[in-house]
Request: fold
Amino acid sequence: MTKAAVMGSGSWGTAYAKVLADAGTDVMMWARRPELAECIESRNENKDYLPGIILPERLHGTADPAVALADADIVVLAVPSQTLRGNLESWKELVPPDATLMSLAKGVESETLLRMSQVIAQVLKADPSRVAVLSGPNLAREVAEGQPAATVIACPDSARAIALQKACHTGYFRPYTNTDVIGCEIGGACKNVIALACGMASGVGLGENTLASIITRGLAEVTRLGVALGASPATLAGLAGVGDLVATCTSPLSRNRSFGEALGRGGSMEDAQRAAHGQVAEGVKSCTSVRALANSYGVDMPLTNAVHQVCHEGQAVLDAVQQLLGRSTKSE
Ligand SMILES: NC(=O)c1ccc[n+]([C@@H]2O[C@H](COP(=O)([O-])OP(=O)(O)OC[C@H]3O[C@@H](n4cnc5c(N)ncnc54)[C@H](O)[C@@H]3O)[C@@H](O)[C@H]2O)c1
Ligand SMILES: O=P(O)(O)OC[C@H](O)CO
Reply:
């Protein structure tokens, strides 16, 4: 029997842990707060992040990372991007040496501009062939409700990718494999930034033409960055690119879109954080790290730059719109 440790009990960690358990994998999920671990273990519910969703009996909760990680074949990292390094530092002695390490986080580390798979390989001194990422149009609540969705599992080692695919394939969750880790990670991190832009546009009252233009030109700039880093454009045209971009940019369930919408309505950063239900909207930090990464590769990302200026330099959304439209014209 495959055993997975899911490290992090937020919305997506919990929803994905449920998928694994529904697929027949034994799951031990780690929560930071003992009372939440206890709720998951004894009430089969994560009342803070996914209230009303009954978790399978095969899914257990603990606040002890040693208990979660003991004998795990798969270690799923489900904490926010900017805390992943610190978490891994404290867990590194507990991670089984041959376990496959899978990142769910969608971000680029602020201080180092590293992708999450690079952070994992660096901190755990793991060969990159052991590190996988999962990314796609996977809004946690919908997946937890069992609504059909597809995703991509990318790993340089195809055999590990196939084992991971088997461990989470259910009647409602369809994982595809891929070896393009860079493309999946760049798609996942950057779509959060584009979703912030869509939310901002919606918040100031702009309509569907604007949103479609942002999504499409957003995809163009994300693809430019991905290709510069070595990704395949086909990955960004797939579930981890277009798929996730569309889901996140259009759904009211997206924390990033909701955050941007609150800013567009004239709210403060604090108002926007409340609109994201107090949960992590990764794009708020990633807009800065993605922009820096793009600059270091000489890649132009005007939408990402605009989102950074609104979130961190006090620019008004309508001024950012004018600035974007005032750029020199070019061919598509
Ligand atoms: N929610 C979704 O629909 C969804 C879907 C796909 C991917 N993701 C990605 O998955 C990652 C996790 O997202 P989430 O939705 O579970 O986030 P979340 O905000 O719901 O939960 C994050 C979890 O990490 C914990 N946490 C926060 N700071 C921590 C720290 N310093 N140390 C340890 N734990 C800490 C929180 O207590 C919480 O349990 C993000 O990168 C997100 O972009 C989310
Ligand atoms: O709620 P968000 O904005 O973090 O987006 C959720 C997922 O990443 C969608 O795939």
